[in-house]
START domain-containing protein (Triparma laevis f. longispina), 1230 residues
Amino acid sequence: MIAALHAELKAKAVEIAQLKAEKAELLTLSPQPKQNHSSSSSIPPTSPKTPTNPFSPLSPTSKLSSHTSHPSTFSTSSPHVRASRQKGSNTLSQNTITNNCIFNVSIHTPPLQFFSDLLGSQMSNSDSKSLYQEVLESHATSKVVYWSFTFSQKNQCDLLLRLTPSPQPNNTIEILVTSITEDDLEPCTVIPEPHVRIVGRRFRLRLNNGVMKVEDLEFGQSSFTFMAEVELLEVDIDETTFAPSISSKVASMIRKGVSFSNRMSGIKGQKSSKLFIRKSTSKLAQKESFSSRFGETTAKTLGFVSGDAEECQRLFCKIADMFYERFKKEDVIDQRMKEDFISNIPNAPPLTLDEQSLVAESMNIVDELANASRIAGTVNESVEKFLKVLEGESAGWGKTVAKMNTSAVTLFSSLWLIDTYKLKAETKQIAIREIWTNLDGTRSQQYTRSFSLPGFKDRVFEAWQTWDVTVDADGRQTFIIAISPLDKYKGTTRHKVAMDKSMVKATSRGVYVIKELTENTCEWTRAQQFDLNIAGVPLRVANIIAKEELKKANKTQEKFRRNGKEVDRETMNALARVMEEKKNEPLMQDQVAVFERCEEFFGDVNCSEGWKPIDTVAYLNSKMWMQYFASNKREMSMAFGRAVGIADGTAEELAAWQMDFCSDEKMRTNIREKNPARLELTHLKRVNEITFATVKKMPFPLDNREFIVRLVWKSEDGKVLIAFEPADIEEVDYGLRLRSIRARTRGIWQFENLQDRGGVKQCRVTLIQHFDIGGIIPKWIVDKKLPHSLSAVQEVIDEFRQDEKIDAAELKEQATFVRERGQDEVYSEEENALIQRTIEKFEVSLKDGGWSKLKSPDNLVKMEIVFEETNKKSTIGVGRAITVVDASAEECVAWEFNKMSRQSQWGHYEEGGLGKSEVKLNDHHSIYNAIFDYGLSAVGLSPREVLMKKIWKVLDEQTIIVTYESFEHPHYPVGTKNSIRATGAAFWRYEKLPEVDGIPQTRVAYSQQLDLKGLIPKAVVNTKAPQQLGFLSTMRKKFDRSTDMDSSRREKLVRIIAQKGLDDENTGVNALKKFEELYEEKEDGSVRSSRSYGLADSKVHAGLLTGGHAWGRTVVRFNAKMESVAAFFWDFGSNKNMQISGDVERIFEEDDDNVFKKVVKRRQYLESTHGGSHRDRLFTSEMSLCRVNSDNIIILISPVEGEGGREDGAMGVGGKGGNGSGIESSRFGF
């Protein structure tokens, strides 16, 4: 059998060789070299793999033979497929159509991989199911495959082929293709069922003398050429080919279409192959609701009408399209193409004299457009747009300048490589679009395209393009793309394109300048001119066309847009590195003059006298002062401002951030503040200098103020200075007239490096600034605007803020000091007396006091209060809070004692604080001053101020205390910010407890007495006391590690519950009965859904039942294992469970590994909605856990008689396979 197969193959090979000789001209359809020519109407030209240098000279584009029997080219749905049919070879017999067909397509995978897929089962398209392949037989030299192609689920084409590979040199593979019938298959071979149901026609292709050729291409591609004699067989349509869900209306339309086709053809059909009609599919037909007449009609034969001879080739083209779609990786190939181009830029041919001349002329145009007019309304856009008509020219130039969030070389390659798959897809609607590269072996390319202009004839542009790259003194690259009409190209090669005679020739000139800013950002300047060759067109119309063309820069910018903060940080880091490199470098003479003028101007300003502090809580980490120069007490135009702050960064980073005047973040802020304009002027480009213009919005009815400022920086050892002054510029083009008054400002920034704090760089920022706002301005406006200008210091601080790291470092340092040196601290008699008075006050005298419970905002923090009556109308309250903190005693002391930590400062102001300060007297003693409002102003009361001494002391190895006591000091006058000085004392006791799972535990008790002065109602004190004591809750949450502690205990419970066997039958039945009884809704009274939990299906009884009882039910689904959910509810002592329930206290027995029953107690605080008082309720219950079966666990809650409130409930936990568990919970009786 093998010998016979070899003989048959040998004979076929001879026939194929003869066929190849006769069809040699058809092979000219194989794509041409990629670097030479590309068209949007065909595939990106491909050829056998060439040298990787894209600038290597290649042979001219070959043309199709002019032989009389030349192939006819067919269009395909994919622009990347070339196909043809040989004329004169059509035969229309009784049942078949035969054609000599060929197609070539680029496959986006290497030849060997494609060959493997072609002969394997990996080629099937699992997503769309349009292409299906199955290997039916594998022989020593060939394989039998079944292919099925489905077109839009309407038509289907099947092939049964024998593929015989024949490897060739140079990584080329040839495959001989022959169609076979079912009779040629092995007896045990079964042809697959149809993989897709269709509504339409079914074809069968028979291929004779077929050859597939796979060749290696660049960028990991393959050139796939397929030629064969194609015979199209007519096929019966069985009713099973119709989708089961087809509507009767559609079925009727198809029925009419089929009948019409049969009447027109007049062809008697033959029965189709069993490959297409199978008995096994008849079951589907029985499910159809079609009429019998419809079934009889669809069983008739389909034929072809006269003039349908090209159907065969069209079908062949569709198959080519499917091959392309199956292996399509356009983005990957485009990226490889760009990477290859970029890597070979150094290997580009040198510029010719003509190319050098074109680049020089283009750069001259950029210089001439420096004073182009800005387009109105674009001043605050991310892309600046300009228009100008150069002298002696009729067509105007458009220019755009934009910052791009990508590297210069990436943008350059994207603009230069215009024959990528992506661009071809985006421009496929353009009638003419052709690209030829490497003209005459140079780096130039020809670009020809058509342009549709509504109301006019189509235009055709023929352009000559070339490029160059330069390197600045600082090592940054600048790429230039020059564009000129093709008529100016003096080379020998110019390509012509067949075009409609009605098209009019137009011209285009342009230049793209891509300047590298940082490694991943660049500035793109684009200048372009279009002469549409329209006589008498108004300039206004031409400008409209130009403006539309300029919008392409916005699209390109959006294509490369990245996160604004990330880009700003990259720009800042790049400039910071430059500042480091240019440290102590001399400035240019005019820049030295800027610093001299500023230093001379501020040299006479006394920084210690005449300055008024600016008091605002908006700027926490900076201090501000101001001085006025007024014509009278109410009106002025000039003022000095000064601001100082500490920032978390280096001097170079902060100065670089300040110099980036038009960063993404600052531009967004400018738009948010509704300032009319903010832009950087480019008339003088220096690495250490910028000039900017901004128009600031002023309150009505004042005119806006315009500032034009020049900034120069210099870097010295340990610091960076920025001097700024008014720029010598008469007028700025904003695109339209902005009604504003020119204001003037000058000043000096100083960024000085300090010692690190906790591994975080520190820098002192100082700004001294002079303002001449212009005109006579009311004092209140200056008071409002000057702090806003000085807030630039706070903006720098906020941008680089690393509060958590700083606070963590200070906490660790202070805690270590208390732990290691706390007992060695020496205390004075005065300090010991203060400590003793505080202990006597809070721990001795109030030990047996009548404490009343307070409603705590944190149920894990117990709060109490007792009142000391001073007269009949006012009270002095002593509050106390107690909790357990998941941290060491030293960490708790360090965190509380540091009142000036950044977190503490932010919390103070967010909760209504008006100011706070601290003076350190020694390592354990400080003076603390704070002003509070805390909502007192809402009830007509003045803010309160406290001035206290605070001292910490280690009593023994287990206890540390902190004491506070009020006192008076002449440096702290009473009445600051219209406040009333309150007096009081406070006492903290920290007691170490045993660790839990390696986590330190500390019992913290906080007592406070505060006399707010004045007649304060007792209700107000009760309201504000939890707010004051809430500081302990903040501490608990700061160090909370409940999740860590609960998880280790819960993991143990999960293992125990998982190992628990089934309970006995009676226990399980009783548990289910109790659960079902409680689960049933109460018939009397209405039931409403609870709004407390959005993810739970909760219902409660709306009315009040007898004896203060109520009923409720909740159903929740968890994404967790059944045992994990059960363990969560069984873990009665977990902090998370307590937080959810709101219990103020829980008492429970320790879990026994083998006993799933325990008595638990929990206390709840009940608050009256009518202002009354309720006693706490103590619930004592017995909990039991029962495993009913492998998929259900029930937790029962039963009341213990005579033990306070009643709680009767059941929780059911169920799941299949241990996953997707749900819980159903009901509770009855409170």
